[in-house]
Input
Amino acid sequence: MNVLEIKNVRKTFGAEVVLSELSLAVPEHTATVLIGASGSGKSTLLRCINLLETIDDGSIFIDGQEISDPAINVDEVRRKLGMVFQSFNLFPHMSVIDNIMLSPVRVHGIAREQARAEALELLSRFGLSDKANQFPDRLSGGQQQRVAIIRSIAVRPRVLMLDEVTSALDPVLVNEVLSIVRDLKADGMTMVLATHEMGFATQVADEVCFLESGRIVERGTAEQVIHNPQRESTQEFLRRVHEAGRL
Amino acid sequence: MSTHESPTHDNVGRASSRDAWNPSQRERERIALRNQIARKRVLVAGLSSLAVLGGLLTVIVSSPGWKVVNKTFFDWNYGATVLHVVAKGILTNIGLTIVASIAIGVVAMCLALARTSRSAAMTPFRILATGYVDIFRGVPLLLVILLVGFGVPALRIKTIPNSVLLLGTVAVVLTYSAYVAEVIRSGILSVHPSQRAAARSLGLSQSQTLRHVVLPQAIKRVIPPLLNDLVALLKDTGLVSILGVIDAVRAGQIEASRTFNYTPYVIAAILFLIITIPLTRYTDRVLLRSISRQNAEGTA
Output
């Protein structure tokens, strides 16, 4: 069963075509990794799935329901989706625990006490118990991003989308964030990730898609796409990533 | 080597008691030079202040009309006798400021929300709010006070009380709501779109996002400019005296016109300053604190 299905999606910003004839199917409990240069459309695709952007053609389905229908209740769709941003986007005026509890309490109608207990459990599972009452500006980038991930999974989304979650981090902090994502993958979370961390992509990806100018030009297992790319542009991209020391 | 140097300098003794560190010869030379430069700066600042302020005072005191001015504006004995009248007047200004600022807060928030909303149903309110702000930000407060104070009673609507104090307050609220609405709106717009994106992607609706994510951050940011507006509001309540409200300005005016001595005006000014100076100092402190906090956020 495909949790997420994307068919022939097209997205333009003015005259610029950002996504074109893009199709993708994400089965339950799998991780799909999007790789490609900046501006290839990875982030835009994630934002389209989340309805933060409106697509210009094609369809997107969650659990078989078309969410690209203009009459759909966007808030209801987003309840099924989790999204983690490159820049964390924690709410600076709320403590860590309040950041995590906001959506369970306000959107999902879970009782405060239960939401608090669940939030504390997630924090302790990912080694952040002592940060529950801190404010985001007291946390390191890696800690902030871990909180952002916990915040997005606190409502048990059907699909978790991660948009270059380690790109804004110090290399030393990258691993503490990636290890959470590995744990979630082991739990069976369905995920779509955009990343430049090829080693990490190899570990978690069930499918790797290489995007170029808004199209998926090569796809397959990590073994195929990252370690044995067929297309010249994929090889060129990976060679550059390798030079940057990220392989 | 440096530890064997004679610990004559103050800094040496203090430092060595803490962490057994003795400044090098070079550092001690630098400290001495810095102290010398600092002393010179204090001397220059003192001399220039004395010259400028002293000069200013000399010009005023030696002016041909100073004797008369001193008697008609700074007659402290007379001032003491009118103090209680003017002080009673300023209570009116304070009361008006408190009542008006509450009303302004409510009206301005509604205007700011109407102007920043994007929903289709709010379109007429958006247009009305924009028009309102354009008009009341563009008309002098004194004119609004005159128009409301003399125009509304002329309508002879029985249900509207003809209290000049009430009408003056309404006029002040009308104008200041437009100013404050713009301040709040700028605060709302200053919250980064990524905060909205994060809230919406958590499933929060448009209005939940506004209430839980955007407004708390926006309000925090506009508190310093709002405190500024509060100081301006207190001063501008003096304008309702034109309708005959007996505030500090009016009370001073009544006394002054009785005796042709203008000391009551100076007393009124001093009373205003007693309230506004601490308030502006406090505003500065809040502003500096919020700036340093924002800078801290930037480095996080």
In short: Residues 34 and 194 of chain A are 5 Å apart (CA to CA).
